[in-house]
Every structure is written in structure tokens, then in C-alpha cells.
Amino acid sequence: MLQNSEELLNETISEEKTLSIYKLIMDGGVGGQVIIAILIVLLAVALYIYFERFFAIKAASKTDSNFMNQIRDHVSHGKLDSAKVLCAQVNSPASHLIEKGISRIGKPLADINTAIENAGRLEIYKLEKNVPVLATIAGAAPMIGFLGTVIGMIIAIHEIANAGGQIDIKMLSDGLYTAMTTTVAGLIVGIISYIQYNHLVVRTNKVVYEMEAKSVEFLDLLNEPI
Questions:
Q1: Which parts of the chain span the membrane according to its record (predicted)?
Q2: 69: pLDDT confidence band, cut at 50, 70 and 90?
Q3: 20-42 in b/e burial notation, b at 16+ Cβ within 10 A?
């Protein structure tokens, strides 16, 4: 008899220690479930944007250390078509700027510089495509989570008001589950999105600096005496 009681007690403790995330979400009521679903969608969008941009920026950051030396050789020998072909083969943001500059050779240096700057803005726009969405998710997700907190508190207060003086913690559980689960979920999505956004910004800036360095080197090449 004593052994059976101990086994029953152990099973009860085991059940109490096992906290199912799914059960928490389901116990949070319809309001909490809707907000959690929205946050899951936002997380999926954030992850998709991050990995898509990560691999795109990684591909754009690949540089050939001998690229500018080859451009210098082609331009100095008047082989502009060969230089353009080389830029097309490299196919990077920096090579696109150099190709734009090569296509303007023969015009005033100010016009070449302007053409490169305009092309540079377009390349930066391509690199930053959808990245601001991550910043939006990073800011919106915690606020959506806090909205769930407010909804949960309203549910809890409503239960207290209708309890008729007999407050039972169990009747408050739905509101409390909604408040806590949505807050945690919102913060998790916001933190992940914030880290992803800043990581992409850092990597994008490195590519931009590389573009600027190659552009300056190309303009210096055009300024060199023949």
C-alpha cells in the first residue's frame, strides 16, 4: 500500500515537472492562440529573409584579389571590351560599379563619378532588399506579445469580477497563460529578429566599403598619367 502511494506521488511530481509548451498555448484561450500564431508567422518570415539575404550578401562579398590588377591592365592598354567582359564574369556589386565606370570612359571624370555613385545606390538597394522588414519585426513582435499580456490581464480581471468574492486561481489560469506565453513568444521573436537584422547590416556594410574602395581605386586609375 505504501509502495503504491509512493509511486502515485512520484507520478504526480513527474507530471507537475513536465510543462508542455503546446499545452500552455492551448490553455491560453483563443486570444493567446491567435497572437502566438501571428508571432510564429513573423518568426518564419524573419528566418526566411535572414537566410535569403545572408547567402545573397555572402555571394556578393566574394572578391578576387587580382580583379583590379586585371582591370588596370585592360584599361591601360585600351581593352575596354575585355574589361567589361571581366566585370560580367566576376558579377559582384563592385564589378558592376567598375563596369558602369568603364562604359563612361571618354566623358568628364565628374560624369564617371556620378554614374558610379548612382550605380552604387542601386547595388546597395539590392543588398538591403527586405532587410528593413527584419527591423520592423524586431520592433513589432514584442509589442504584439505585450498586447497578449494586456488581453490576458483583461481576461483575469474579468474572471475576478465575475467570481462573486470566491476567487480561485484555476479560473485565472487562462488569462495568466495568455499573458505570460504571448509575452515570452513576442520577446523571443523580437530578440531573434533584432540579432538577425544587425548581423545583416554589419555584413552589408562590409560589402559597401569594398564597393567604395574599388570605386576609388578605379577613379585613381583614370587619373593616372598615360
A1: 30-51, 131-157, 177-197
A2: confident
A3: eeeebbebbbebbbebbebbeeb
